[in-house]
Amino acid sequence: MHDSKHEFLISSSPAEGVQLIELHHLAKRNCLSKQVLRELAGALRHAEAQSGIRAVVLTGQPEFFSAGADVADMAKRGVDAYLDTDRLGYWKTIESFRKPLIAAVNGYAFGGGFELALLADIIIAGTNAKFGLPEVKIGAIPGDGGTQRLPLLVGKSRAMRMILSGEPISAEEAGQNGVVSEVVDPSMTVSTAVTLASLIAKRPAKAIELAKEAVRRSTRSILQAGLLMERELVVEVFRTHDRDEGHRAFVEKRAPQFRHD
Q1: CB 171 within 8 A of CB 127
Q2: What does pLDDT average to over the chain?
Q3: Residue 125 — φ and ψ, nearest 5°?
Q4: Is position 235 within any domain?
Q5: What's the CATH number where 25 sits?
Q6: Which long-range contacts does 93-97 make (Cβ < 8 Å, 24+ apart)?
Q7: Does 129 reside within a domain?
């Protein structure tokens, strides 16, 4: 198996036609900084251009998939960090990946980490996985598709519960709600995803690409409009005192003092 290491990713070829990409920003629990997103977008562009790669598995660490957005950067730069043209472009590249993408999630996938997993076509979860959108706890709202993609999967009531409470759900509940397709022992999460990716990689590549595109088109018009609306509302929440206080409190590792105005 050939491995290639980037600064924040490790790529390998665990099976014929399959590329495994491991998020490896350990110091910040795989937080999705602009640098991490740039490397991931670049790795997916490379995979898309290689005819020998027919499916990709994306994973994190045994204890965490991703802690989410780079809150420290957003606390420092404010709305400019969120609206950063490069950052948004990297998300768009990941979203637009044409080949099958399977997320293998162990541990927590929170905030942007969960939103990243939601871009995958299939999610395999370990029994220790937790999925959450905790942005309201620091005075923010999900801003990279969570408010739009989650309701499509689980319905309004369940999505509202997660988004408005900020509390995570277990792998078991994620399986019951249709967020993930299979829940396995954490030691088997990646291998299960690779086995599935290997099976898909044996199917005719063009048929697979068109099948994925057909499914994506079923919600594209409503989703694209919703994502633009979500972005507008995130910009609005960035103007509030409580968002600023919540982000600063997170960075300073203290409880936020919200004004609720």
Answers
A1: yes
A2: 96
A3: -120, 140
A4: no
A5: 3.90.226.10
A6: 93/41, 93/44, 93/45, 94/37, 94/40, 94/41, 94/44, 94/119, 95/119, 95/145, 97/44, 97/47, 97/48, 97/56
A7: yes
Q: Exposure of 148 by Cβ count < 10 A (0-12 exposed, 13-18 middle, 19+ buried)?
A: buried
Whether 170 is in a domain gets the answer: yes
pLDDT surpasses 90 at 23: yes
Residue 258 near residue 244, CB atoms below 8 Å: no
Please tell me the predicted confidence (pLDDT) of residue 4.
Answer: 55
| Angle at CA of residue 130, ends 129 and 135, nearest 5° | 150
Place of tokens 């950052």: 87
Q: Where are the strands (E) in 194-233, listed by range?
A: none
Give the residue numbers annotated as catalytic, written as ranges: 69, 112, 115, 135
DSSP-derived secondary structure letter, 119: T
- The whole-angstrom separation of Cα 89 and Cα 76 is 21
Average the pLDDT over 74-79 and give the result: 93
Give the position of tokens 């499916």.
55
Q: Tokens 């965490």 map to which residue?
A: 64
Long-range pairs, 24-31, Cβ under 8 A, ≥24: 24/61, 26/61, 28/67, 28/70, 29/64, 29/66, 29/67, 30/60, 30/61, 30/64, 30/65, 30/66, 30/67, 30/113, 31/66, 31/67, 31/68, 31/69, 31/70, 31/71, 31/112
User: What pLDDT band is residue 2 in, cutting at 50, 70 and 90?
Assistant: very low
In a domain, 42, yes or no: yes
Q: What is the pLDDT of residues 120-168, one digit of tens each?
A: 999 999 999 999 999 999 999 999 999 999 999 999 999 999 999 999 9
When divided into structural domains, the chain yields a total of 1
Instruction: Provide the residue range defining the domain that includes 53.
Output: 3-189+200-209
CA contacts within 13 A on the Cβ side of 218: 8
